[in-house]
Amino acid sequence: MKARISLLVCATLFAAVLALAVTAPANAQQPAREHAVSSSQLHQDVQKAAQTRKTNEAAVREMFASDAAKETLKSAGIDYKQVNQAISQVDDEDLARMAERSNEVQKDFAAGNLGDRDLLIILLVAVALILIIVAVR
């Protein structure tokens, strides 16, 4: 009787070990889970952000590159090159707001809704804002 029980216990243990040995490699060979965001999606998002920044910088630079803006800067004793360099140092959020505003200003000025005095004030405030933002960083 003892021999039967010992044989039954050994058979049960052998079956359990065999079951674990068969299922463990099967679980280990399952494909790795995909990340929540794929690397290609992440790459596209980074490219989109870089392109948006480039577009915003171009809009702000365009406003300051006009002849009227350069004259305004010169009369205020501000070097255009300094302003142009400072634009690169403005963070994305502030740059987006400035680009939106500069697009509005250019449209209003082209439509005749702004006079030279208005443009002068807007440009000087924009330059001051850029220089303050750069100085704080």
Could you write a compact summary of the structure shown?
With 137 residues, the protein is mostly helical.
Tell me the Rg in angstroms. Answer: 34 Å
**Broad shape:** elongated
Into which percentage range does the β-strand content fall?
Answer: under 5%
Structural class: mainly alpha
Give the SSE order as H and E letters.
HHHHHH
Our measurement of the CA-to-CA distance between the termini, rounded to an integer number of angstroms, reads: 86 Å
Count every helix, treating DSSP H or I runs of 4 or more residues as helices.
Answer: 6
In terms of per-residue confidence, which ranges show pLDDT below 50 for 5 or more consecutive residues?
Answer: none
Number of strands: 0
Helix content: over 70%
Tell me about the largest β-sheet: none
Average per-residue pLDDT, rounded, comes to 76
Written account of the structure:
This protein is an all-alpha fold and 137 residues long. It has a domain at 58-137. Helices cover 81% and strands 0% of the residues. Helix 3 packs across helix 6.
What is the secondary structure topology, with strand pairs?
Blueprint: H1 2-28, H2 39-65, H3 67-75, H4 80-87, H5 92-110, H6 116-136
Helix pairs in contact: 2-4, 2-5, 3-6
Features of the shown structure:
137 residues; mainly alpha; 6 helices; elongated
